């Protein structure tokens, strides 16, 4: 089990901030640093940029401070109870800055950890253990993927969020204009970026999301095809049937029958 000793979310220090632990602490420390800072590595202070994570090993000399009059981070002190090999299975380096494309998604898990840490609810330790595992797996995943996802574009995080929204709510009336407007860029530039980031057009993404949702409903419900087409964002049943057959090689009814026969 992963035991969380203490943690903090969005900790803000308005005055000159400095943390020094000459002999470290007897547990691991994970920081998600959201502002510029200075960290000491091999006896020298080095400047670090925002959106940086760092995992300190147990009993490790630790010295870091703000680069100005403001410092902001999330922090977790944690350890393993009877599960030491867990970190060995991941690619998270110790005592080294890691720059992340999506630090906010990790920060959300820290927020939940802090909330749980200050509660007195049933299964508190199990919930913290689960959240820590997700957080460490997500951190490892971001390390494994290129740190310059989207070519380092400032639009990549918000475009990736839009992509997740499309798959989460494919029934919405997604159009190029409304999607571009949500990103605050022109439709032509939006379409160019979307294809560059995800290797298909935004409307192909919408169709893919709707077909995948339709396949889920067809295989798990007896909902009539007309109703199902509405649930998946199609204006009429005929359009849905034609598009589904084009993508899957079967009509929705045939797909449902084939799935049921295979069960």
UniProtKB/TrEMBL annotation:
Keyword annotations: DNA-binding, Transcription, Transcription regulation
Superkingdom of this protein's organism: Bacteria
Gene3D superfamilies on file: Homeodomain-like
Database matches in SUPFAM superfamilies: Homeodomain-like, Regulatory protein AraC
Domain annotation HTH araC/xylS-type: ranges: 160-258
Chaperone keyword on record: no
PROSITE patterns reported in the protein's UniProt record: HTH_ARAC_FAMILY_1, HTH_ARAC_FAMILY_2
GO molecular function: DNA-binding transcription factor activity; sequence-specific DNA binding
Name listed for the protein in its UniProt record: AraC family transcriptional regulator, arabinose operon regulatory protein
Species annotation: Anaerocolumna jejuensis DSM 15929
Lineage: Bacteria, Bacillati, Bacillota, Clostridia, Lachnospirales
């Amino acid at each position: 089990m992963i035991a969380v000793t203490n943690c903090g979310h969005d900790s803000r220090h308005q005055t000159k901030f400095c943390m020094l632990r000459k002999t470290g602490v007897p547990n691991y420390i994970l920081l998600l640093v959201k502002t510029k800072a200075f960290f000491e590595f091999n006896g020298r202070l080095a400047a670090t940029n925002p959106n940086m994570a760092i995992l300190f090993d147990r009993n490790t000399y630790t010295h870091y401070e703000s680069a100005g009059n403001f410092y902001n981070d999330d922090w977790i002190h944690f350890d393993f109870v009877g599960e030491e090999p867990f970190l060995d299975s991941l690619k998270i380096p110790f005592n080294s800055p890691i720059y992340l494309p999506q630090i906010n998604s990790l920060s959300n898990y820290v927020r939940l950890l802090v909330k749980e840490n200050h509660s007195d609810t049933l299964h508190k330790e199990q919930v913290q253990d689960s959240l820590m595992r997700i957080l460490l797996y997500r951190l490892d995943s971001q390390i494994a993927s290129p740190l310059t996802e989207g070519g380092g574009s400032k639009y990549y995080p918000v475009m990736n969020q839009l992509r997740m929204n499309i798959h989460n709510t494919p029934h919405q009336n997604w159009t190029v204009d409304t999607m571009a407007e949500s990103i605050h860029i022109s439709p032509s530039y939006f379409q160019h970026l979307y294809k560059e980031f995800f290797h298909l057009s935004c409307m192909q993404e919408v169709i893919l999301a709707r077909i995948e949702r339709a396949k889920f409903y067809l295989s798990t419900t007896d909902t009539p095809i007309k109703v199902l087409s509405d649930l998946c964002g199609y204006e009429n049943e005929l359009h849905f049937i034609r598009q589904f057959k084009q993508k899957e090689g079967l009509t929705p009814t045939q797909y449902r029958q084939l799935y049921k026969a295979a069960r």
